[in-house]
Design brief:
Lambda_DNA-bd_dom_sf; single chain
Length: about 60
Amino acid sequence: MMIKGVKVNDIARKLNLANSNIIVVIHGHRPNQKVRKGIADAICKSVSDIWPELAEGRKK
């Protein structure tokens, strides 16, 4: 799903979040910081756990 070295901003875009700061606050990453694939997947998983409706929107 995610490429290695994906940026936090790109994850936010994938999750249709206007503000990547939400993810940054949860995970302590800077918006332009690159993260490994496992971390990217973990961010997506925990964000969709916190906001299930976001995950629903992502599946469409």
